[in-house]
Amino acid sequence: MSWTDDVRIIGGRTATFTGATSQSAGVSGLALDTTKSFSIAAWTRLTDLTTTSTLLAKDAASGQSSPFRLRARPLASGGNAWCLSMVAAATATSGTEVCSTVANTANQWVHVAAGFDRAEGRIKVWVNGLETSAAFTAPITNGRGIVVGQGVDAVAGPGDRLRGNVADLQVFDRLLVAEDFTGHTAGATLDGDVDVPGILDPIEVGWWTFSRGFNCRDETNQATCLASADDPFGRQLRTTLGTEIKTGGHDGRAMFLDDLLVDGEAPNSKPEYGQSQRNTGTADVPAWAYAPVLRTDQSFSVSAWVNPDDFGTGAHTIVSQDGPDRTPFGLSLRPATVAGVTADRWTFSMVPSSGTGGDVVISAEPVDYEDTAVWTHVVGVYDAVRKEARLYVNGVPEKPLTKNFPVWQASGPLTVGGALFSGVRTDRWRGGIDDVHAYQGALSDLQVRDLFQSELRIAVS
Ligand SMILES: [Ca+2]
Ligand SMILES: [Ca+2]
């Protein structure tokens, strides 16, 4: 087993398994009693669907089988799925198995869980929270620990080694329930109820409130041309000449982009935008370098509050992330036609890495020119599991697009206030941008509504 950077989230390390004989990782001191209810869970990404990959198993002595094995394997009916098998005798080479109805896709992160329900006498497997179960009433156990990356067979010995990545491994001495996956939302009423996060919740990887940032008067003075992030990753947005971060906006301070130098003194011939950087030095001697925020080839979400100043002049992008030639997605305001009516509308676009074309989710309602003092909450979601691109305006979902998007990883910085096409900065934003969030994972309809309502409350309080 080795550790790999930036596979699941940018700035994180993930365990990588190659199928090698020496790779398994034991969890010592965790001699789970598998005759009682238990559950196991992890995020995982398979790199090879042609062989059997064991994610987790209980270890077993020579000549005995693992009491349980959670593994992905090619099915006789075609495809590849996650399966839990449990044996009824230590020397048995096969047992009772339940396989998920969700087909696996190579190189895609999914959440996999499995468990034994003693009360009901069932074994269960969940993929992204979707449950499949089968009857099983004769579990065995042993004094061994949990093993990551391989299972043990009474005859064949240790094998079926994992080819892929593992993150956020969890073991429970109880059965998982639906709310473990989805979490629990207290809602808007103040009745003492609290939000409880779920296992499947997206991870916030970037957040800019613009409470800590400066007007960029001189690009050579890096200490002023920036906005610090409010998330735990310690990144910043490096801003270009003329970009202002000042009072006003959705909740006190925001980023403002136009065609003037700071304080409206003179025309600015350069585009105004901000791009993510990470500190490659130390806290005392920082060395800031442009770096991405999102894995754009996995599920992600981006959100912002915006106040546009520029209408009827083409596309204006709020958030994107640079590839070498172009951005793989854009959350934008642009002219688009719905039911024969062409007008400026909110859009979330998914762009292939080369060639022309792409897919755009478009807001049904045009942007209201009369209400230009009003800030609007816009969210774009790429959901790799449901193969959906989704757009939300003020917490309300637009009709999603469903297809196999040709996603790709953009290795450049997150860009706030523009996009890139054919290597050229394009689709400049003019107006205000505030409270930019980036998440690894797909926000649900409910989570977007909660985000909108919670930030709306901040704005009015
Ligand atoms: Ca703000
Ligand atoms: Ca300006």
Overview of this protein structure:
The protein has 461 residues and is mostly beta strands. The chain has 2 domains: 2-182, Jelly Rolls; 203-460, Jelly Rolls (Sandwich), CATH 2.60.120.200. Helices cover 5% and strands 42% of the residues. The chain has 2 helices and 35 strands. The relative contact order is 0.13. The model has no long low-confidence stretch (mean pLDDT 92). Residues 242, 244, 258, 260, 268, 272 line the site of one calcium ion.
The CATH class of the largest domain, by name, is Mainly Beta
Q: Count of helices? A: 2
CATH architecture of the largest domain: Sandwich
Determine the mean pLDDT.
92
How helical, in percent, are the residues? under 10%
In terms of DSSP E residues, the strand content is: 35-45%
Q: Structural class per helix/strand content?
A: mainly beta
Q: What is the CATH T-level topology of the largest domain? A: Jelly Rolls
Runs in which pLDDT lies below 50 for 5 or more consecutive residues are none
